[in-house]
Structure formats: structure tokens, C-alpha cells
Amino acid sequence: MDATARAFGYRRGVPGTLALSATLAALLLAAAAIWSVRAAFRRARRRHGADLLRQVNALNELLGRLTLPGPLPPFGHGSGRPDFLLEVARHALERRPSIVVECGSGLSTLVIARCLELNGTGRLWSLEHDADFARFVRGEAARLGLERLAVLDAPLVATPLGDERWLWYEPSGLPDGPIDMLVIDGPPGRVQPLARYPAGPILFPRLAADAVVLVDDARRGKERRVLARWAREFPALAREVRGTARGLAILTRGR
Ligand SMILES: C[S@@+](CC[C@H](N)C(=O)[O-])C[C@H]1O[C@@H](n2cnc3c(N)ncnc32)[C@H](O)[C@@H]1O
């Protein structure tokens, strides 16, 4: 045994061989762990790269369709992603809805309002719990010359549904007629478990026969549970889920 081996505590004979084997095994395990972390990073990078491309392409198509007179405001963490906004725009342009209701305002509000303007028909009522943000969205709509919308100051209020109590938008500013298109992207999930559930019992009975409901974040656990509960309680609504970045559920009946 040379001096180096002695320095590392190796001994001659069986104990020395065992110690060497254990060290080799530990090195192999460490190498395998490093390799698998690197592979996971590569996969994540590829996924993010693919998503980035999808978002850029969606934004490109969206802006091409909208032909807005100015830029959209910057995207924030809470903003709808371009692939969601593009789906919203496609539905608004193809279906030409008269009454659109939205839960949770932002970029989608501006996109829908612009589509209604291009359609030359329809109006959007957007429920927003945050008064400052509602003011911001109204200002952006004015900057872009959009008029077919009302961003409603709708604070979250105690809302009894059956024997359950929820927090949901104060809905008194909504119009009376049947809703042709409903976009559900709020309230934020931190408000309560299954934060978006009340939209079902409160708004689904008001849907027009050929209405469409678009639900963002359909891949998230909370929204999946909300969708599952709606499916039990509103079996007449068929559901399709699109593979947008966050998942988009499309609910329809009779079309
Ligand atoms: C999921 S976001 C709604 C996003 C919106 N539908 C859109 O497409 O941008 C839910 C709530 O987050 C808040 N929010 C959204 N975007 C925000 C931003 N850029 N800055 C601050 N708050 C925002 C608003 O109160 C909104 O009602």
C-alpha cells in the first residue's frame, strides 16, 4: 500500500478491498445523480424553449389579428399567456358574442374588447376585485380607444351557495341578458380553496344555449378540482381541454 492509500485510511486485505468498493460505489452513485440532474435540466430547457416559441408565435398571430392602434401593456406574472389570449380572441371573433362576461380582468379584457370592436357588435363586462387594477385596465382600454367594455369594481364579498360560504365578486353590475361567452380567470387562487368554483353555480344558469365558457389554468390542481365539481353539478356542459401553457378548458352545450 502506498502512502496515498494509507493517508485515505485504506488497509491491506479484505477490509481495504471493502472500503475501496464502497468508495467506488459512492462515486458511481454521485455520478449517476449528477447525470440525472443534468438530464432533467436539459429536458426543462427544451420544454421552456418550446413554450417560449409557442408563446412568441401565439403573440405574433394575436397581434396580427387584433391590429391594435398601440402596444398592449406589459405582460405580468398574473397576465394571461399569449396562447390563452389567442384562443380567447379566436372564440370572440368567430362566435361574435353579444354579451361577454369575464372574471378577472387584464390583458384578456383588452383583447376581448378589441375583438368586439372588430366584430362591430357585443359588449364585455369584466369583474375585477382589485380597484387599483380595474382603474389601470380602464386606462389602458381608453389609451387603445376601446369602448365596448365595462370593467366593474367588484370586490370579493361573502357569497352563500347552498350551505357553503364563499368569497366571490359582488355581481350587481352584470347585465340581465343571457351570457354568450364567459371567460373565467379569477379570482386569484390565494383567496380561498377552489377560488373559481362559485362562477359555476352563479353564472352557468345564465348561459345562452350556444354559449362558450373558457377557463384558464386548467392544468393546475385547484382548477382541475373545480372543473371536476362543475362536471358533476352541470353534466350538460361538455368539456374539452386545450394544451396551452397553463391549460385551457372549453365548456359548451348544444353546439
Ligand atoms: C389570473 S389574473 C387575470 C388575468 C387576466 N385575465 C389576463 O388575461 O391578463 C387574476 C387577477 O390577478 C390580478 N392581475 C392580473 N394581471 C395583473 C398585473 N399585471 N398586475 C397586477 N395584478 C394583476 C387582477 O386582480 C386579476 O383579476
Write the layout of secondary structure elements.
Blueprint: H1 3-7, H2 13-66, H3 82-95, E1 99-103, H4 107-119, E2 123-128, H5 131-143, E3 149-153, E4 156-161, E5 164-169, E6 179-184, H6 199-203, E7 207-216, H7 221-233, E8 238-242, E9 248-252
Parallel strand pairs: 1-2, 1-6, 2-3, 6-7
Antiparallel strand pairs: 4-5, 7-9, 8-9
This protein binds S-adenosylmethionine.
S-adenosylmethionine (SAM) is lined by residues 76, 78-80, 104-108, 128, 130, 133, 185-186, 188.
Q: How would you describe this protein?
A:
The chain is of the alpha/beta class. It has two domains: 1-65, no CATH class; 67-252, Vaccinia Virus protein VP39 (Rossmann fold), CATH 3.40.50. Helices cover 46% and strands 21% of the residues. It is built from seven helices and nine strands; from the N terminus they run H-H-H-E-H-E-H-E-E-E-E-H-E-H-E-E. The protein has helices spanning 3-7, 13-66, 82-95, 107-119, 131-143, 199-203, 221-233; strands at residues 99-103, 123-128, 149-153, 156-161, 164-169, 179-184, 207-216, 238-242, 248-252. Strands 3-2-1-6-7-9-8 form a seven-stranded mixed beta sheet, with helices on both faces. Strands 4-5 form a two-stranded antiparallel sheet. Helix 3 (82-95) packs parallel to helix 4 (107-119). The longest helix has 54 residues, at 13-66. The radius of gyration is 26 Å and the shape is elongated. The mean pLDDT is 93.
Tell me what portion of residues adopts beta-strand conformation.
15-25%
Ions, cofactors and other ligands present here are: S-adenosylmethionine
Distance between the termini: 82 Å
Q: Which class do the helix and strand fractions yield? A: alpha/beta
Which architecture of the largest domain per CATH?
3-Layer(aba) Sandwich
User: What is the average of the pLDDT values?
Assistant: 93
Quick one: CATH superfamily of the largest domain? Vaccinia Virus protein VP39
